[in-house]
Design a protein that fits this description.
InterPro entries (chains A, B): DprA, DrpA_SLOG, WH_DNA-bd_sf
Structural class of chain A: alpha/beta
Family (chains A, B): Belongs to the DprA/Smf family.
Low-confidence stretches of chain A: 311-322, 388-393
CATH architecture of the largest domain in chain A: 3-Layer(aba) Sandwich
GO biological process, one term (chains A, B): DNA-mediated transformation
Radius of gyration of chain A: 24 Å
Largest interface: A-B, 20 and 20 residues
Pfam family, one (chains A, B): DNA_processg_A
Number of strands of chain A: 11
Oligomer: homodimer
Strand order of the largest sheet of chain A: 1-2-6-5-4-3-7-8-9
Shape of chain A: globular
Distance between the termini of chain A: 37 Å
Strand content of chain A: 5-15%
Protein name (chains A, B): DNA processing protein
Helix content of chain A: 40-55%
CATH class of the largest domain in chain A: Alpha Beta
Chain lengths: ~400, ~400
Amino acid sequence: MSDDDRLARVALTWLTEPGTRSVHRLVEQLGAGGALELLLDGGAPEERLRAAVAARGRDGDARAVAADALARAARLGARLVTPTDGEWPATVEHLRRLALPGATRRVDVETAPPLCFWVRGGWPLGDALDRAVSVVGARAATPYGVHVATELGYGLADRDWTVVSGGAFGIDAAAHRGALNAGGLTVAVLACGIDRPYPMGNAALFDRIGEAGLLVSEWPPGAEPLRPRFLVRNRVIAAATRGTVLVEASARSGATQTLNRALAAGRHAMVVPGPVTSAMSVGAHELLREHPSARLVTGVAHVLEEVGRIGADLAPPARAPQRPRDLLDDEATQVLESMPRRGATGVDRLAARAGVDVRTALRKLSLLEELGLVRRRADGYALATGAAPASGT
Amino acid sequence: MSDDDRLARVALTWLTEPGTRSVHRLVEQLGAGGALELLLDGGAPEERLRAAVAARGRDGDARAVAADALARAARLGARLVTPTDGEWPATVEHLRRLALPGATRRVDVETAPPLCFWVRGGWPLGDALDRAVSVVGARAATPYGVHVATELGYGLADRDWTVVSGGAFGIDAAAHRGALNAGGLTVAVLACGIDRPYPMGNAALFDRIGEAGLLVSEWPPGAEPLRPRFLVRNRVIAAATRGTVLVEASARSGATQTLNRALAAGRHAMVVPGPVTSAMSVGAHELLREHPSARLVTGVAHVLEEVGRIGADLAPPARAPQRPRDLLDDEATQVLESMPRRGATGVDRLAARAGVDVRTALRKLSLLEELGLVRRRADGYALATGAAPASGT
C-alpha cells in the first residue's frame, strides 16, 4: 500500500497504544489514513481514546512524528513492515478473535492485531516466524531454569525452528542464547524502540540477535519500555508462533500471562515443570493444574511433538506435496479450468470461457505452459497429460 | 467366621500367590475351606494353578503350614485379619473390579482382593485406613524427593491422615518417617512376612512403625520378599487408600505401576513434578503427560484438595448436617413413620402399623422421645413439633 498508509499506521501507533481494538476496527473500515484523520479531528469512538489522542496531540504533530520515526529507522538500517508487505506474519491477524476469559484489565481486552512492526535484521519477518516457538519465563530465573531454557533454545534452533522470546534477563536471554549458539534463528519481540532494546544489560545479546536474527517491535524507534507495554507485547509473542513454552515463572507472572494468551489464541501452550520447592516454578505448576490444555514438556522432543501438529487456529500448512496448480492465481486457475478435457482450443474461445480478456488469457497460458500444465499444439492449447482441471480431479 | 475359614485362607495364600483371580472366585463360590479342598484335590480350574498347587504341596501340608504360621504370628504379637473381621478394610474389595488397561502380565491380571492380612500394631486396620493416603516413589530417591516425601508424610499425618507406603528405602521410608515425626499414624504394607520386614536397613524404622502404626502383609510370617511380590503388593497400597501420591520415579518404575493401579481403581492419582534434568522425575512426568486424570500436586494442600473430595469408588459421607433422624435404625424409623401426623395413638396400634412387636415399639418410642422426635401424652404418643415423618417432609 501507499507511503501514506505506512505513515498513518506509524502515527496511529504513536497516538494510541498498539492493540487498541477500536483503532484496529477504524483502520479496517476507513483505512489507516482515514482512521488517522478521524482521530486527529477528535472523532474517536470512545471518550478514553479521544482523551488519549488529544493528550498525545499536544506533544507533537502525529504525521511529523511518524515521518521522523521512519527517517530514524532508515538511518538505523531498520524497516517498517505493514500488513500489505510480503513479509507480514499472517498469524498475528488471529489476534482479531483473541478473547481472554474474564478479561477486564485494559491489557487483557485491547489485544487487537498490530498495525505495523519495526524490524531490524536480514530475514523476512514472516519467513522467520513460519516455524517458530516462543520460550518465555522468569527474569529472576534459577540456574535450573536458565539451563533448561538454553537447552530448549539450542535444540529448537538446531532443528530449524525459530526461537522467539522477549529479550529479557533470565529465561528469555537464555533461550535467545541457546538458539544463537546453535547457529539458528532467533527473534526478540521488544516492548520499546528497536534502537534502544531493553534491558541495557543484554546489549551485546541484542547486537548478536540483530545480526543473526531479528529485533522486532510495534513501537517506533526511541519508544520507552513502559511497564504496561510488556503485557501488550506478550500477545504478539503468543500469537506469532505455533506454541509457547513456559520455563520458570513465579505465581501470576508476566510469562504466565503470555501462556494464557497462547491458550486463548489456540496455540500450543507448554510448561516445563520444576522442583516444587522452587518459588520460580510455582507459576508453571499453577498453569499445569488450572489448564488441562497446557501440556507438560520436559525437553525439545516433547515440544516438537506438540508444535509438529496443527493447532486449531493455525492455517493448516499443506500436507500434500505442493503441486504447481497450488501456486496459480485466480485468473490462471480459471483459464486452466476452462480448458477442454480432450483436444485443443483457441485463445479467443478460452478467454471467453474463462471470462478474461485475450491478453490475460495469453499471459496465463504462457505461465501454465511453463508449469507443464498446458501444451501448445498446432491446433491451439491442450491440457498436458495428467493436468486435468482441479474440478475434474 | 470359623477358625477353619481363617486357616484355609492362610493355606490358600501359601499355596497360591495373593491376587490370583480364580482362587478368589473359588473362595466366593465354595468358601475358603471348600476352595482349599478343591485345590488340594487337584481340582484347580487352570492348568498353571494346578501345577503351582502341586509344586507347593510337595513342600509341605498346606493346613499344617498355615497352623504353624498362625502360631508363629501369635508368638510375635501379630494377628490375622480376614473379611469377616470388623477391622477388615472394605476398600480392598474394590480390587474385584480392578482392570488394568492392556494387562497381559500376570501381576497386572491377578489383582483380586486379598484373602487375609497379617497385622502387627495396635490400631484396627480398617480404622487406620479410613482416612489414608499412599505416598510412593523411587528407592534411589534424590535429596529433593526425600525432602518432599518427608514433608508430605509430616503434613498429612499432622492433619490426621494415615500415611501408607511400602517400607522401602528412599521415598517410602521418608514418607513413613515424616508421619512418625508428626506423631501420626503410618502403615507399611509389606511384600514379605511381617516378622522379617524388608529391607533390613530399615529395621529401626519398622520397629517404630510396628509400635506407633501398623505393619501389614498378605504373606505369612517368614515369607521372603520375592521380586514379583512387590508388584502384587502395590495393588493393596493403591486400593486401600483414597489416593496415591507419586514423588519420584524413574521411567516405568514400580511406583508408577502403583499409580496406574490407583488410576484403575478410581482412586486419586497424584504426582509431584521435579526438575526435568533429574532421571528420578522422568516417571513422574511421563505419568502426568499420559494420564489426564493424574493430578499434579506440589504439597499437602493440593493433596488434601484431592482426597477431601469424594472419589468415584468411595462411599459418599453425609453432606447435609446430621439430624437425629439420620441416626435411627430401621425399626425406630418404621415406628416414627407410623406415627399419626395429627393427634396421638396407643402403643398397640403403633406396633401393628409399624410391623414390630409391642416390646420393640416401646423401646423405640423411648429412644424417639429421648431424641425429641416424639412426645408422650395422656392419650398416647404424638409427634413432637417439627418431627413430621421423613416420608412426609
